[in-house]
Fold this sequence. Notes:
The protein is mainly alpha-helical. 60% of the residues lie in helices and 8% in strands. It is built from eight helices and three strands; from the N terminus they run ααααβααββαα. The chain has helices at 5-33, 39-42, 53-62, 65-73, 87-102, 106-110, 130-155, 162-166; strands spanning 75-76, 116-121, 124-129. The longest helix is centred in the first third of the chain and has 29 residues, at 5-33. The radius of gyration is 16 Å and the shape is globular. It starts with a helix and ends in a 7-residue tail after the last helix.
Amino acid sequence: MATSFHDLSVRCYLQTLTGVEGYLAKGLAYCLEHGIDPAGIVETRVYPDMLPFSFQLWSVAHHSLGAIRGIEAGVFTPPPPIPTLDYAGWQKLVSDSRETLAAMTPDAVNALEGKDLLFKLGDFKLPFVAEDFVLSFSLPNLHFHATTAYDILRMKGVPLGKRDYTGPMRIKR
């Protein structure tokens, strides 16, 4: 079985981002149905020392589209400061990230396979090859932040299940 770099990166990102889009839509619908201001969710944290919902979504975009952009540039750094967005703005950020990734051609992404990438955090540096970066750093971080955002919505009472998280599976056709 041959798996391309596009398959293990972009297609995985798209599945997760589509799931995030879906549970964000359900979250908004729940807020509207129950008279809850969705602005109250944006700064919600699972625990006081954890970063808020807004950071989780910022990181979802950064560890998907931002990961590919980092591989293209040869360097990946922590995300820039979090913008101030409302709930709809966070939905748009996730959708825009998904749309940009969906427009990337397999040939363009596959051409990044084997490319060197340096993760930089101040003076700290970790060298990666593109596919190892995706598999051991980007995807685990993407899932951590997507799960944390999901958990915040669940904590607020949004009726979500595992199928809301997983996004569209790659089933045999």
